[in-house]
Amino acid sequence: MMSRIQAVMEKLPKSMDAAVVQSDVNRFYLTGMRSSSGTVVCFRETAYLLIDFRYIEKARECAKDCQVIEQHDLMQQVRELLQKHGAKLVAVESRQMTLSQFAQWKKVLGSGVTLDSSDALSNAITDCRNVKSEAEIEKIRQAQRIAEIAFDDILQFLRPGVSEREIMLRLNQTMLEHGSEGESFPTIALTGKATSMPHGVPSMERFVQKGDFVLMDFGATIDGYHSDMTRTVCVGQPSEQMRHVYETVLRAQTAALQGAKAGITGRELDKYAREILEEAGFGDQFGHALGHGVGLEIHEFPNASPGSNAVLAPGHVVTVEPGVYFPGAFGVRIEDFVVIRSDGCENLTKAPKQCIIL
């Protein structure tokens, strides 16, 4: 199999002799080594990971498809590697490197080396990361199973008088106890009127009351790969309006899940759900995109939004999360995430979606 480093280099224009990767997530993707610093220098025929003393022993054990070098004087060492391999045109991460970093590298490397300021390297890495292998999908699936264990547990924990922050902490603790490396993102746990805030922050001063919706958006991580799910449940009997909104959001999500497949655009996927919400009179209450990619980062390409021209491809992992929000009253969001397949999608989320009343 072609290594990830080789795959990225194959996507670069033939004129480019080398690539320098420094961002944490891309460095981990290419080498399998997690660290807060380090530099990968890639050539057509080989690659190097320069990393400092703190990580050198671990890097020599786990770094893949590259030679590990202990970092002493980064700029000088990189310059020597470029000279050794006769590299003249070098690609850098345009989306991660700052202007000041670019200027510093350009100055230190000198006139014999040209740094490419285009998006070529960032695009190449993104293209590779977007399409998940079955091994990557399995890690995401494992993370989701852990999140679902936490969801099953929280259903036994929810009751009037529990604070949002207690719910958040319980979800996080359960995921950690079952093997998660940490939450995918700051866990959202909201109740009552606060559920109208799509990304509200859990409070110690808001407590579940009888008849409240509780909205929970959370995920686990396995080997750096994230999961993402949202469920809205009711503690006590919901009002007729609450039931109606919930069932409408569920219908919208079901339509999008049925339409998700390779070859459609993010805009088309979004439209499957949005049309149902608009027909129900809730168009103005659905103010965010239907979904986003998930992988080593919680928000990746492709997006499923009204403005997205991204074409979904087999191996893309995308969330499907319609929501309806009434400020000062309540909100409902239901989120699964799926692997795009050639003839449809595989839903990685197994947690129940009927309106759960506790």
Folded structure, characterized:
The structure is a single chain. With 358 residues, the chain is of the alpha+beta class. Helices cover 36% and strands 22% of the residues. It is built from ten helices and 18 strands. The chain has a six-stranded mixed β-sheet with strand order 4-3-2-1-5-6, sandwiched between helices. A three-stranded antiparallel β-sheet has the order 7-8-11, with helices on one face. The longest helix has 24 residues, at 134-157. The N and C termini lie far apart (50 Å).
Give the structure's gist in a few sentences.
The protein is α+β, with helices and mostly antiparallel strands and 358 residues long.
Distance between the termini: 50 Å
**Rg on CA atoms, Å:** 23 Å
Q: What structural category do the secondary elements indicate? A: alpha+beta
Strand order of the largest sheet: 4-3-2-1-5-6
Uncertain segments: none
Mean pLDDT, to the nearest integer, reads 96
Number of helices: 10
Number of strands: 18
Reading the helices and strands in chain order gives HEHEEHEHEHEHHHEEEEEHHEEEEEEE
Key structural traits:
22% strand, 358 residues, alpha+beta, single chain, 10 helices
Topology summary:
Elements lengths: L3 H8 L6 E4 L2 H8 L7 E5 L3 E5 L4 H7 L4 E4 L3 H11 L4 E4 L6 H11 L4 E3 L3 H11 L3 H24 L6 H14 L10 E4 L20 E7 L2 E2 L2 E2 L2 E7 L4 H20 L6 H14 L11 E3 L6 E5 L12 E4 L2 E4 L3 E4 L2 E6 L2 E4 L11
Parallel strand pairs: 1-5, 3-4, 5-6
Antiparallel strand pairs: 1-2, 2-3, 7-8, 8-11, 9-10, 12-13, 14-17, 15-16, 17-18
Helix pairs in contact: 1-6, 7-8, 9-10
